[in-house]
Amino acid sequence: MKALAIHGTEDIRWEDRAVPQPAPGEVRLRVRYVGICGSDLHYYFHGANGEYAIREPLTPGHELSAVVDLDPSGRLAAGTPVTVHPARYGAEVPGLEDRPHLRPGGDYFGSAATMPHRQGGAAEYLLVEEQMIRVLPEGLPLERAALAEPLAVALHAVSLAGDIAGKRVLVIGAGPIGLLAVSAAAHAGAATIGASDVRTEPLDRAAALGASELVLVGRDAIADESYDVVFECSGVPVSVTQAVRAARRAGTVVQVGMLPNAEIGVNLAPMLAKELTLRGAFRFSTEIDDAVAMLAASDALDAVISHTIDAADAVEAFGVARDSSASAKVLLRL
């Protein structure tokens, strides 16, 4: 079989590998689509994602759709369309019973956080544990189903803000996760959704998904205390300061974008006088099931997928995915 492997900075190879054989409790999938995530871009262009550096060849990919190739248990027939919850959780920790994704010691497809690395889904065949599989509803295309994981991230972030029905919501950063946050906020009943970005093209995409107040950074201003809830999806330090300023008194800021693993210049002073709630969002728990249902109910999120490129052309695909003016979500086709 073929698989992608990142060997270091801007060194990705389409390699031959042996077809893996499932152990008891495992299912072999024939992967069809894999989304390129921000962490994948960091691994490829920088050789590391935050503090996690590549120390051995890493197959990227945790956003995927596939069909069952072999289920030794006989529970799932060959050809069954599926997506995958890409996390394995660590040991139970008191106080985290309803947040298994926060337990230490777990791992995630396509991650260099552990050694050996947890290899990802950008391979023709992939072994997954039975409990990770989510069978797709009839009629949900495999291409759209590859959005289940990032949509689950957005749904989790929105849930952390509490009930946003009828509220004014701002999404800072209209990249793929920001676009999905716009859609998740609309799904949750937000009355008004604003979106800000440094480029016009992502803002046009956000408008198509329900954002009605568009802010081009450098041209337009966001009034202080103008939104009830702010989702910071860019991971840019200056945007964190903007989020704190934009939130109303007693409002909520949810940090969704991955921040640098370093001391950064952020002005949090307004947080005190406004008694803001500032929350971090990390992956998700069960929201992938909600994401699958949402994707099956509507084709609206097809607009988030801007390119589908053969995995053998991964260098091109990663270059396109890096350019936010040219792309939103880029999928690898396997």
UniProtKB/TrEMBL annotation:
**A family per Pfam:** ADH_N
- Which keywords does UniProt give here? Metal-binding, Oxidoreductase, Zinc
Top-level lineage group: Bacteria
Q: Which residues form the Alcohol dehydrogenase-like C-terminal domain?
A: 176-296
* Chain ranges of the Alcohol dehydrogenase-like N-terminal domain: 24-137
Q: Give the protein's cofactors.
A: Zn(2+)
Which family, according to UniProt?
Answer: Belongs to the zinc-containing alcohol dehydrogenase family.
Q: Output this protein's name.
A: L-idonate 5-dehydrogenase
Q: Which organism is it from?
A: Leifsonia williamsii
